[in-house]
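Exercise 7.
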Amino acid sequence: MKSELNKIEKYLIYRDSLNEEVSRVAVAWHLDHSLKVINGICDSLHKSDPEAYVRKFNMPRLLSFTLGYIPRGRAQAPQSVLPPDTIKTDDIVLQLSMARDKLKHIGNLDDHSNFKHPVFDRLNKKQAKRFIEIHTRHHLKIVKDILKE
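Solution. The predicted structure, written as tokens, is:
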């Protein structure tokens, strides 16, 4: 994830870039959203009850995790991870710092630490880390397409 976080930092200078053929929102939205997801998942893993985790089969999760892919335009982000109307660069920088710190510490959590995803259901620590990677890469690909890289 270090590489992905470095890319988020690199793309900050393009924060206001927009290409409506690719996305209705600017680069800053994708960066802020990605960081809110990372930080939110890490917080949920910390707060979770590992004893309450029960593994369940989930076909969308299996497909997405196997392919390492999230289709564009399919899901709606939960309110808790939506960026504000005005996204400040300082807020993104702060969230980036928090994400780096939080990701360092999730390795120490119980393997059954978990969080509830709206589509993929309950994810344990390993699955949560995989989701963070797939989700962050998904938004970084959108940013690359916005910038036509």
